[in-house]
Amino acid sequence: MSPLCDEAQFGAILEGIVADEAPQLFAVVQEYGDRVDGRIAAWGMAFADHAEVVSVGGGLRMSLSEPESALRGFNFGSHIRARLVWFNPDAATDDA
User: Fold this and answer.
1) What is the structure's pLDDT at 2?
2) What is the distance between the alpha carbons of residues 21 and 35, in angstroms, rounded to a whole number?
3) How far, in Å, CA of 20 to CA of 61, rounded?
4) Tell me, what DSSP letter sits at residue 86?
5) How far apart are the C-alpha atoms of 38 and 83, rounded to whole Å?
6) Most CB atoms within 10 A, among 18, 20, 58, 68?
7) How would DSSP label each residue in 8-25?
8) How many other C-beta atoms can be found within 10 angstroms of the C-beta atom of residue 40?
9) Residue 23 burial (CB count, 10 A)
10) Residue 44's Cα: distance from chain center in Å?
11) Domains of the chain: which residue ranges?
């Protein structure tokens, strides 16, 4: 089969496909007590039809129907609650 177009145009087409299909990035954050402390427990990618989650330590991987389903796996007792936080690049701090 012959190429559809030149290299530059094909690269632009692929870039558009990637932009259109990119998953949304989120974190599962564990909150200790009533806003006492928190930590990122896992990272996830939300696709149109499912979500993939990987714990920070790498020991846990989940494939779920929706991102919110990951939360129950990160709640512990009555003092550690999990919450979903969507990645916002504008929220980055200078000391990160």
Assistant:
1) 93
2) 35
3) 25
4) E
5) 10
6) 68
7) HHHHHHHHHHHHHHPPEE
8) 12
9) 13
10) 3
11) 23-88
Please list the pLDDT of the chain residue by residue as tens digits (96 residues). Answer: 999 999 999 999 999 999 999 999 999 999 999 989 999 999 999 999 999 999 999 899 999 999 999 999 999 999 999 999 999 999 988 775
Q: What is the pLDDT of residue 95?
A: 72
Q: Which two tokens stand for residue 22?
A: 């990119």
> Which amino acid, one-letter code, is at 90?
D
DSSP assignment letter at 27: E
From residue 55, alpha-carbon distances to 42, 64, 68, 76, 88 in Å are 4, 14, 15, 15, 19
Residue with tokens 């494939």: 63
Distance from the first to the final alpha carbon of the chain: 48
